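Design request, tokens follow.
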């Protein structure tokens, strides 16, 4: 499988799917074979744009027609993640979900459990793990270069206009989106921070507000603090009301030094107090999204032949995977965000939301 292009089907034909299709077509790793969307006119237009031959109203229709792609990319409203991922898993199709893992923590648990039981590879596109600056920052923290980590601060001061909700009304409803800026945008930064610090989130405090988009059911401003089992704290501020939108930043403070990430004017990290090796994210590509897509492809291409169970792997302190004791060597190219690693992010966000409603510190329900 590793020596040929993988057949890729896309479910959901919105903006982010167009970026994925563009990167998939530009590289040599994929062949776009199908797209699915209940808005059949939009799906047909998407297919013409990217030279896709098969168009379906949904993945159920695709499977019923006998098409089994090598990879499925899901870019659908959050509340559909569970249903469609379970269909793909039941069909044995490796699946890359657009973030977040699901609209609710229980849906996310169901996806991970089904993937593990069926031994089907499922990942979540938290692409900032493939960002050059975020990757170097996380590896510096994981390797101990910054010393014992005391706390991290994440600030996402973005801006959205009214058409963000008008063009995709599902974003405005709790039942379909699961949350607002924290889940939809800020969870990127929560993911990087939790990945960098390692360990387990245990509790959270949070406050959410609807400052501008008061006609929606979801927040446009969220602030929270997540407690880690290590004693470290992660502070997060996620906004879609900053005017103008400004640089996304992540700061990690340790006993030996500090790492400071910003995505403007380009993704970069600066270290203060220490000299940390600037590690480069795996995969080739001009953008983190492209590297994430190719990272997932490498993971799928290295899967064992049909009928051979996946080799057990154990996480190391730096997040790499190595063979478990007594196991044969496995791929040196695991995907950076398998579905189970997106569960702590969803659980931390869930705890912040519950804290905002209760006014109390809430335990992270992992």
């Amino acid at each position: 499988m590793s020596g040929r292009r993988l057949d890729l089907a896309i479910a959901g034909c919105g903006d982010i799917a167009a970026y994925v299709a563009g990167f998939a077509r530009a590289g040599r790793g994929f062949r776009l074979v199908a797209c699915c969307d209940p808005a059949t006119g939009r799906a047909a237009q998407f297919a013409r744009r990217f030279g896709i031959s098969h168009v379906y109203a949904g993945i159920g229709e695709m499977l019923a027609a006998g098409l089994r792609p090598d990879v499925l990319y899901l870019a659908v409203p959050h509340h559909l993640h569970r249903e469609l991922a379970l269909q793909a898993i039941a069909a044995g199709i490796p699946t890359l979900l657009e973030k977040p893992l699901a609209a609710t923590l229980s849906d996310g648990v169901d996806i991970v459990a089904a993937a593990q039981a069926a031994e089907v590879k499922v990942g979540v596109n938290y692409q900032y793990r493939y960002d050059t600056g975020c990757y170097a920052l996380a590896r510096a923290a994981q390797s101990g270069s910054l010393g014992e980590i005391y706390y991290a601060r994440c600030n996402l001061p973005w801006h959205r206009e009214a058409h963000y909700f008008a063009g995709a009304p599902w974003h405005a409803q709790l039942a379909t989106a699961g949350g607002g800026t924290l889940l939809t945008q800020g969870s990127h930064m929560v993911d990087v921070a939790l990945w960098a610090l390692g360990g387990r989130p245990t509790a959270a405090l949070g406050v959410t507000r609807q400052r501008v988009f008061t006609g929606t059911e979801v927040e446009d401003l969220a602030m929270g603090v997540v407690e880690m089992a290590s004693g470290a704290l992660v502070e997060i501020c996620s906004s879609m009301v900053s005017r103008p939108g400004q640089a996304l930043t992540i700061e990690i403070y340790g006993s030996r030094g500090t790492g400071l990430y910003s995505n403007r004017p380009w993704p970069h990290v600066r270290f203060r107090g220490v000299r940390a090796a600037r590690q480069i994210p795996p995969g080739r590509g001009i953008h983190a999204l492209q590297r994430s897509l190719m990272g997932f492809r490498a993971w799928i291409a290295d899967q064992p032949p049909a009928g051979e169970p996946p080799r057990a792997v154990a996480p190391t302190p730096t997040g790499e995977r190595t063979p478990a004791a007594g196991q044969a060597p496995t791929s040196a190219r695991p995907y950076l965000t398998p579905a189970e690693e997106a569960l702590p992010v969803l659980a931390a966000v869930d705890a912040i939301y519950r804290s905002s409603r209760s006014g109390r510190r809430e335990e992270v329900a992992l």
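Comment from the thread starter after seeing the answer: thanks! The first strand starts at residue 6 and ends at 11.
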